Amino acid sequence: MAEIDEPTDRRRLLRRMGTLAAGAAGAGVAGAVAATPARADDGQPVLQGRVNEAGGTTVIRSHGPNAPTLELFNTFEDAVGTGGGGAGPSLRLRPLSDSLYDEAPAGSLSADRLGIPWVSIQAFQEQTHSYQVHTDFNSTTTVPVVPTRVVDTRGAAGRTRILNSSALDSAGRLLKGQTMYVDLGDIAFFPEAVLLNATVTGQGAAGYLTVHAYGSARPGVASINYSPNENLSNFVFTASGEGWPSPDAAISVYTSQLTHVVLDVVGFVVGTGGVNPDIMPGALASAGGAAPTDAARRREQEIRKRKPAWK
Questions:
Q1: Within 10 Å of residue 144's Cβ, how many Cβ atoms?
Q2: Same domain, yes or no: 113 and 178
């Protein structure tokens, strides 16, 4: 676009004229001039480092399958982590309202007062509606994992995640009327919830087992109701809890009667937290930051090549 590269002299002239105007005016007038947004004639370049008032929509057009129309990058990177880590922002949508105008053209973007992005979508015929973009701040994601046994009180190796061994008898069984706390911090980081299979075995009397969030009051409901000498399992979907300074993720398990307990985790619900890639299926582990496996690459390639049966 030739008009963008053309007027270095014009830019210098505009800046010089602004300087002369400020120098010729009094202090109060100079302050007013400095506060006035910069303007550039239609078709001329904007002034860098200044607020530029656009009289209408600015269109940047390009043509090509691989080259982006616009590329923004910020060379700042906080590798040490003094500012929380990460790169400097390349683009900011300034928060102004509680949402995006419902009749904005499809594909429009904005940010609400919290900075959460909104997008306008053509939902029905020619009608557009604005929708809040789901991020790990305002929504959660269910992450399936390779089934992972986190507790098996029948053996010493299966009791390493239990934070309070005093809740167990000499054989490792969870004592009657006791709650054990299970640390999941090595496989999850501040999850919102845990999906697991809970199993009881070796109990001598009828009772019930309750699984709930660590640090919360025990609810008056049962995850499993069991009879004597019965091997019984049930699926449990429960909130996770955490402690300060640790653990990062934990659950509580209460029993009304003496019993062995086996817990197999099959998934987590996460928001701003995360899941250890070591227990995630190949493709999901790659998305979580782990190096993609050959199987994950092949799966991604097949997904890109195929279409769903209903299309």
A1: 14
A2: no
Q: Are 22 and 7 in contact (CB under 8 A)?
A: no
18-58 residue pLDDT tens: 433 334 344 444 444 444 555 656 666 777 778 877 777 88
Helix axes 8-24, 27-35, angle to 10 degrees: 150
- Whether the pTM exceeds 0.90: the reply is no
Say if residues 116 and 137 touch (Cβ distance below 8 Å). yes
Instruction: Give residue 40's domain range.
Output: 1-52
> CATH no. for residue 164?
2.60.120
Q: Are residues 96 and 175 in the same domain?
A: no
- Kindly state the percentage of the chain with pLDDT values over 70: 79
Angle at 78 between CA 275 and CA 244, to 5 degrees: 45
Q: In 3-state terms, what secondary structure has residue 279?
A: helix
Q: Do 211 and 233 fall into the same domain? A: yes
